[in-house]
Design goal:
- The structure holds 2 protein chains of 2 kinds.
- Chain A has helices at about 10-25, 65-70, 80-90, 115-130, 135-150, 155-170, 185-195, 210-220, 275-285, 295-300, 330-345, 355-370, 375-390, 405-415; strands at about 25-30, 30-35, 45-50, 95-100, 105-110, 200-205, 245-250, 260-270, 310-315, 320-330, 420-425.
- Chain A is an alpha+beta fold.
- Chain A folds into 2 domains: about 20-220, Cytochrome Bc1 Complex, Chain A, domain 1, CATH 3.30.830.10; about 245-425, Metalloenzyme, LuxS/M16 peptidase-like (Cytochrome Bc1 Complex, Chain A, domain 1, 2-Layer Sandwich), CATH 3.30.830.
- In chain A, the strands form 2 sheets. A 6-stranded mixed β-sheet of chain A has the order 1-2-6-3-5-4, sandwiched between helices. A 5-stranded mixed β-sheet of chain A has the order 7-11-8-10-9.
- In chain A, α4 crosses α8 and α9 (about 275-285) crosses α12.
- Chain A is globular and about 60 Å long.
- Chain A starts with 10 loop residues before the first helix and ends in an 8-residue tail after the last strand.
- The two termini of chain B are about 45 Å apart.
- The longest helix of chain B is centred in the middle third of the chain and has 19 residues, at about 70-90.
- Chain B is built from 7 helices and no strands.
- By secondary structure, chain B is mainly α.
- Classes of the chains: A alpha+beta, B mainly alpha.
- Chains A and B meet through α3 and α5 of A and α6 of B.
- Chain B: It comes from Kwoniella dendrophila CBS 6074.
- Chain B: It is a peripheral membrane protein.
């Protein structure tokens, strides 16, 4: 028998990853919290990300955050959208915008040395976007529509979106995607942007650049920012968990890739602790080896149906979290059978687990946590919320996690009313 | 002020216009304004209830795009004026005098939008046919192959 204790420990790489994230502290540049990560080695690129507290949970009009995301890098006082795009191409950079339920991320990746240009692009987006009505109609809405349609025709994405609506109703429950049922006008976008782009609502994350030099450039760039602190007129309400059930028929004309999907989730109106992160890896569903389903309970269940998958997920937010499993199978009857078994696994989650399994899950969780900050997306997703929460970026400590603490956290979580979303042939799919 | 050639051939869908030339000369503009007003009244479109911008030829991609950028109210009013004007034309009649468009009502609501579209196209063309400075230098050198360079024979 192999056991984890016998394996040589790959500590050094882990330690550097931890050290990197522990030693970085945010500094404040003119009211904007700023953090820079210097990556050692031959990397020749840097990136700047402005995190804005303007996710879908803060919107007053449904879908306005999604529209605002697509309004990034359009005409500003200093350049038209075409000019911004072409100049970026000439510099060899990449501009992108991302939206989560809590944050809007504006990112510029570029060759080292071009900080000044790209910071000015980002600041001009924040301070002087024109928001032309014709841009909304000609450039923004077609993309918004395409993204919404794509999300709707991807059962897993759609089911998770609906699961949020059931779980949290308002605020965090707001859909990430704009909907044709709620038209967004240019005035909605302007008011939302005005509230969102105030200094107190921003944080700047840099990679390949030190915190000191970043805070210098940021304070000079944002120094003249007209946005007064605390002027944010955004919809901030605390989150409570409700739960419920939704059954959505899958369009029979849907492409073959959209397979019937079931989401079973439990939420709580408090931050996710390390126990839940470990629990996610304990239930698993994702194999760490090729050509084998792995030994986690969920993948063992999913293995019985060819082409099926059952994956545990944890979506952490600043004041709530949603934990659950996404199950999908090629056909609805197969999914119905699978879902019952997955529900059993989820109900008994965290009970009678062996120490060995916990150790394995802790190691997986630690690795996932550390390796997430190696990519820009993961780094931003980790650091952005931390900056708004207090400014210090720490990596999660899993030292206190034991079999009993997981059991306690799991039983606490499973007390709540479940959120179940079934997408597929609702005639066949089971009820909650 | 653009060049004369540009004013005649380069004004896009708005057609040839010497307006920039005249506007640059206040004395001439003052004189020309009388002719301009005379022409506008004599042309008879105000008596039929049109604005000047209703008469711009709309069968070009630029004007079509500009028309799409009108606000809903502007678009409605434009169609209303056209229908009313068409009815008057068919009856060979002018509107009653109190319904004639007054000079201060004759606003250029479409021209700025067309200019905007044209400027955008020009910007795109500029970026599409942009040359990097090094290539420009090379071209300049190529043109001068027969002229003697300094330091060579």
């Amino acid at each position: 028998m192999y056991s984890l204790a016998k394996l040589p420990k790959g500590q050094s790489a882990l330690k550097t990853a931890l050290r990197r994230s522990i030693t970085s502290k945010a500094s404040s540049a003119g009211g904007v919290s700023v953090i820079g990560f210097e990556n050692k080695g031959p990397a020749a690129t840097s990136s700047l990300t402005v995190a804005v507290k303007a996710g879908s949970r803060f919107e007053n009009t449904p879908g306005v955050a999604h529209v605002l995301k697509n309004f990034a890098f359009k005409a500003t006082a200093s350049a038209s959208s075409l000019r911004t795009a072409r100049e970026t191409e000439l510099y060899g950079g990449v501009l992108s915008a991302g939206l989560t339920r809590e944050h809007l991320y504006l990112t510029a990746e570029f060759l080292r040395g071009d900080e000044e240009h790209f910071l000015s692009v980002l600041t001009s987006v924040l301070s002087s976007s024109h928001f032309h009505p014709y841009e909304l109609k000609e450039l923004v809405l077609p993309v918004v529509q395409a993204e919404s349609v794509a999300a709707q025709s991807t059962p897993a994405t759609y089911a998770l979106d609906v699961a949020h609506q059931l779980a949290f109703r308002k605020g965090l429950g707001n859909s990430l995607y704009a909907s044709p049922h709620y038209p967004v006008t240019i005035d909605d976008v302007k008011t939302f942007a005005q509230g969102a782009f105030s200094k107190s609502n921003l944080a700047v994350i840099g990679s390949g650049i030190s915190t000191e030099s970043l805070s210098q450039v940021v304070s000079s760039a944002f120094g003249s920012g007209s946005s007064a602190p605390g002027s944010s007129g955004l919809n901030t309400q605390s989150t409570s968990y409700y739960g419920g059930e939704a059954r959505i028929p899958l369009d029979i004309h849907a492409p073959a890739t959209s397979t019937p999907t079931l989401v079973i989730a439990y939420g709580q109106s408090s931050k996710a602790g390390p126990e839940l992160k470990v629990l996610k890896h304990l239930l698993g569903g994702e194999s760490s080896l090729k050509w084998t389903p792995g030994s986690s309970p969920l993948s063992q269940v999913a293995e019985k149906v060819p082409g099926a998958s059952a994956k545990a997920f944890l979506l952490p937010y600043s004041d709530a979290s949603l934990f659950g499993v996404v199950v999908s199978a090629p056909t609805s009857p197969q999914l119905a059978g699978l879902a019952k078994e997955v529900a059993q696994v989820l109900k008994s989650a965290g009970q009678s687990v062996k120490d060995e399994e916990v150790k394995r899950a802790v190691a997986k969780a630690t690795f996932a946590d550390a390796s997430a900050s190696e990519t820009l997306q993961g780094l931003v997703a980790n650091v952005g919320p931390a900056l708004f929460a207090g400014g210090e970026v720490k990596s999660e400590s899993f030292s206190g996690v034991s079999a009993s603490s997981i059991q306690k956290a799991a039983s606490e979580l499973l007390k709540a009313k479940p959120t179940v979303v079934a997408v597929g042939n609702v005639n066949v799919l089971p009820y909650a | 002020m653009p060049s004369i050639t540009k004013m005649i051939f380069g004004n896009g869908p708005l057609g040839p216009s010497f307006a920039p030339f005249i506007r640059a000369r206040p004395g001439l503009q003052k004189y020309w304004a009388r002719w301009s007003n005379f022409y506008k009244n004599a042309a008879g479109y105000r008596q039929k209830g049109y604005l000047y911008d209703d008469l711009i030829v709309e069968e070009t991609p630029q004007v079509q795009l500009a028309l799409k950028r009108l606000s809903a109210k502007q678009r409605y009013d434009r169609v209303f004026r056209m229908r009313r004007g068409l009815t008057q034309s068919m009856a060979h009649k002018n509107l009653p005098k109190e319904q004639w468009i007054k000079p201060e009502e004759d606003v250029r609501y479409l021209t700025p939008l067309i200019e905007q579209v044209v400027a955008e196209e020009a910007e795109r063309a500029e970026w599409d046919y942009m040359t990097v400075e090094k290539i420009q230098q090379k071209r300049a050198e190529k043109r001068n192959i027969f002229s003697k360079r300094e330091g060579t024979h």
